[in-house]
Design goal:
The protein is mainly alpha-helical. The chain is built from six helices and no strands. The chain has helices spanning 2-8, 14-25, 27-50, 60-81, 83-110, 116-129.
């Protein structure tokens, strides 16, 4: 129920609670929310690692904390809200892992230092070796 979703996400903004609640009720909203929060947490991590601490009160670290907090609350609620929500969470997690493995192959191929055609062939070979084609 929506009340159970909101009870598990105490301390979040009303907007975050609303989005989490809607995500738990709609697979389409859950998909969009999952990937939006995933990208934002990764972007914030990259920004905070590439920029030294700024003197302002609102830096990349605070944004990262906000997105991670909402993402974590969403994951908990989605995976415990209903059997369907748990199944969706498992699919999204598996897709995220798959994308991560493909990205690792791409990084490995890029590090080979070959021309574009050589990198493409290396990527194809790595994808095949790791059963990702």
């Amino acid at each position: 129920s929506a009340r159970a979703v909101e009870a598990g996400a105490e301390g979040l903004s009303p907007l975050a609670n609303f989005l989490i609640s809607r995500g738990c009720q709609s697979p389409q909203v859950a998909n969009y929310l999952y990937w939006y929060l995933k990208v934002e947490t990764e972007d914030a991590e990259l920004a905070s690692s590439s920029h030294p601490k700024s003197s302002s009160n609102s830096g990349p670290g605070e944004d990262n904390y906000l997105f991670e907090t909402v993402f974590d609350a969403f994951i908990v609620q989605l995976s415990t809200h209903s059997p369907e929500g748990n199944m969706l969470f498992k699919r999204l997690s598996a897709l995220n892992e798959y994308i991560g493995q493909i990205a690792a192959c791409q990084r490995d191929a890029r590090e080979q230092g070959k021309r574009r055609e050589g990198k493409e062939e290396c990527l194809r070979r790595l994808l095949e070796q790791r059963n990702l084609q």
